[in-house]
Amino acid sequence: MEMRPSRVLQKLRSGQVVGCFKTNLSCARAAEIAGMAGFDCLWTDMEHTANDWPVVEKQILAAKVYNMDVMVRVTRGSYSDYIRPLELDAAGIMVPHVMSLEDARNVVRMTRFHPVGRRPIDGGNADGAYTNIDLVEYTGQANATGSSPFRLRTRNRLMIWRRLRNCRG
After folding, report:
1. CA distance 101 to 104
2. Which of 6, 45, 112, 128 could form a disulfide with 116 if both were Cys (CB 3.0 to 4.6 A apart)?
3. Rounded CA separation 59/33 (Å)
4. Do the beta carbons of residue 60 and residue 67 sit within 8 Å?
5. Identified catalytic residue from 22, 29, 48, 118
6. In which element (H, E) is residue 143 found?
7. Cis before residue 120, ω within 30 degrees of 0?
8. Which three-class secondary structure state does DSSP give residue 133?
9. Do residues 138 and 123 make contact, with C-beta atoms less than 8 angstroms apart?
10. At what angle do helices 28-36 and 53-65 cross, to 10 degrees?
11. Would you kindly state where each structural domain of the chain is located, as residue ranges?
């Protein structure tokens, strides 16, 4: 068994355009409609809306029916705030207000497994097919397919972005 491959990353790596639907609605039906309409990705927000974890989980489940990736804009927070959507099987997270290269590296350390990061291993959630994926395969696939975009909020964002492109993870 393997992790669900990211539709967005597959398209980006082959030079194709990706369609993303941004929603502030707190229902799974919006995700289902976006999937039915053929979008590649749903961007759901936890920073600027009243969405909670059960809502996001239902949106992810609805999107998976249509093989649509989900990108969760998380609140600026802790390790648990960053990995929870990944363990719910979101394709990636968007971390807001990253202010420096070190800040971005810290997010990578929290969201990637060894040898790229220092994320502890669980594998018993949706992203690991509830322990049905071999542990070594799970960590390798998660590091290769996961996505952690950053919202850079600084005057030096272009310089930081160039350095991030060369970072492992």
Report:
1. 5
2. 112
3. 11
4. no
5. 48
6. helix 135-145
7. no
8. coil
9. yes
10. 20
11. 7-162
- The backbone torsions φ and ψ at residue 88, rounded to the nearest 5 degrees and listed phi first, read -80, -5
When pLDDT is cut at 50, 70 and 90, the band that residue 168 belongs to is low
Buried b (16+ CB within 10 A) or exposed e, 74-98: beeeeeebbbbbbbbbbbbbbbbeb
Indicate if 48 belongs to the active site.
yes
- CATH code, 7-162: 3.20.20.60
Which is it for the CA torsion 164, 94, 11, 21, positive or negative? Answer: negative
Residues counted in the chain: 169
Parallel/antiparallel/unpaired status of strands 92-98 and 150-152: parallel
State pLDDT tens for residues 117-149: 888 888 788 988 888 899 899 888 888 876 666
Among residues 58, 17, 57, 25, the alpha carbon closest in space to that of 41 is found at 17
